[in-house]
Amino acid sequence: MRGRFITFEGIDGAGKSTHIEWVAARLRERATVVTTREPGGTPLGEDLRGLLLHRKMGLETEALLMFAARREHIAEVIEPALARGDWVISDRFTDATFAYQGGGRGLPRERLEVLEQWVQGDLQPDLTLLFDVPLETAAQRLANAREPDKFEAESRAFFERTRAEYLRRAAEAPGRFRVIDATRSIEDIRVTLEEILSSF
């Protein structure tokens, strides 16, 4: 029986990473769970992650490298795990590329759709948890974090466009997305996550 594929999404500072291991632990009560991330997830993907997060490059180059890392990730981690019947939890997937390179940076959606089809075919997450916060909340959280990468250091306008594209995609695919108000306490968010997981 094929496994299930869950992705965590949200702008930088939304707090999604706080909950990934907790969700994985809950799901391990009923399945083998693989946790991974994008960009990254494989040795090659992690090398590309370093370039993508810290090196300046052209917009098209950035998008192509994101999808190159994703192709390797799908082939080496995601598809084999799902075929074994494992559940996969990924910290970001293709929605992030549409939000950041599309919404944030302005790459035409049609180009991203072509790359998406080429790289992943019909593969889509079974469930996407979108952690949503106002930009002010995200900025406050990032101010207390480590040295920002090139995305975290982007402008308010960039994150406004990124968040808007995330919400547009969630409205376009309500069967797959669950939008979570991540301004609440960790405990309250986990009550919501428990409810989502119990019906998944």
TrEMBL record:
E.C. number(s) listed in UniProt: 2.7.4.9
Keyword Transferase on entry: yes
Pfam families: Thymidylate_kin
Family: Belongs to the thymidylate kinase family.
CDD domains: TMPK
Transmembrane segments: none
InterPro entries, A to Z: P-loop_NTPase, Thymidylate_kin-like_dom, Thymidylate_kinase
GO cellular component term of the entry, any: cytosol
Classification via SUPFAM superfamilies: P-loop containing nucleoside triphosphate hydrolases (SSF52540)
Keywords carried by this UniProt record: ATP-binding, Kinase, Nucleotide biosynthesis, Nucleotide-binding, Transferase
Protein's name according to its UniProt entry: Thymidylate kinase
GO biological process, one term: dTTP biosynthetic process
Residues the entry annotates as binding ATP: 10-17
Gene encoding the protein: tmk
Biological function: Phosphorylation of dTMP to form dTDP in both de novo and salvage pathways of dTTP synthesis.
GO molecular function, a single term: ATP binding
Catalytic activity: dTMP + ATP = dTDP + ADP
Enzyme type, top EC level: transferase
Domain Thymidylate kinase-like: 8-189
Keyword ATP-binding tagged: yes
